[in-house]
From TrEMBL:
Pfam families: OpcA_G6PD_assem, OpcA_G6PD_C
PANTHER family associated with the record: OXPP CYCLE PROTEIN OPCA-RELATED (PTHR38658)
Protein name: OpcA protein
Basic residues bias locations: 337-357
UniProt domain Glucose-6-phosphate dehydrogenase assembly protein OpcA C-terminal: residue ranges: 170-299
Amino acid sequence: MKIDLTDTTAGDINKALVQGRRDIGTPAVGMVLTLVIVTDEENAYDALKAANDASREHPSRTLVVIKRVSRSPRDRTTSRLDAEVRVGAEAGTGETVVLRLYGEVVDHADSVVLPLLLPDAPVVVWWPVNAPLDPAKDPLGALAQRRVTDTYAAEQPVRELSARAAAYTPGDTDLSWTRITPWRSMLAAALDQVTCEVKAVEVEGEEFNPSCELLAMWLAERLDVPVKRLLSSGPGLTAVRMNTSCGPIVLDRADGSLATLSIEGQPARAVALKRRETAELIAEELRRLDPDDTYASALRYGVERLNTAPEPQSTAAEPEPLEEAAEEAAAKTAKAPAKKASAKTAKKAPARKAAAK
């Protein structure tokens, strides 16, 4: 059931919700939280579809806030609120209100949303795109116990991670972190099967993929070992290789759905590790509304290392330390005319070593 309201108020929207529940024969309210989605017109449909799918697990009142920016100076001074109320099959297992804000009311979206929140129920705010740099200080974010962003939608994801770390407040989280939950579970389970010391780790995935960066940060923070970031054509994360005292542990996913787990001394196993839809990610975030301390520690630790580390290096093979020493010795020897033959021999040594590798 849909009810369209033009140039309306929050009071009229609440009345429409009550009337809608009565008309479909469900006057009781069985929703567990309020989900506020702050998006634009272009991404509203996909975000609302994901929220409706997630409501099967978490019945909620979904408020979609769409801020319409008027091009005409006259329209910018005219405030208007249009609403679309959906109940019943149109709103999944909860209620949905699509709010379109015009004019000066765009800057006061919190005053529109506040009267529509469910009483005595937690509030979650989700920005599918264009999230504020400090979600907790945003007027809408200040109403929520949980604030969900998606760094993957940013133009510069790695720089966005730095902003998230600087402005982190308990209750903040990111869907880029949620995407690697199966990877973290699988790697932790693999390490539980062996009694080895991890010496180094390689994380392979797409360039500028925040999930790959967060997984590398988490491994570096938890294992306290060097973590090397390698690039691949994707999709998303493709492999994690851990060098241990008992042999390599490799989790390789080349096709984005099925992965292979290889542990030294054990047969390789195929494990389901598909890329999840947004609805599954949102449903996971709504399962627990307490602060995610693991995300906070990994984010801060990793961003600190990014800020203090040298410039990122390319994935091309780099000379080994021994090869560099040989090249330096060869250069010094080449300056002396009496030792030309030895210089030539020193220059050929790295090539033979590389070929042996």
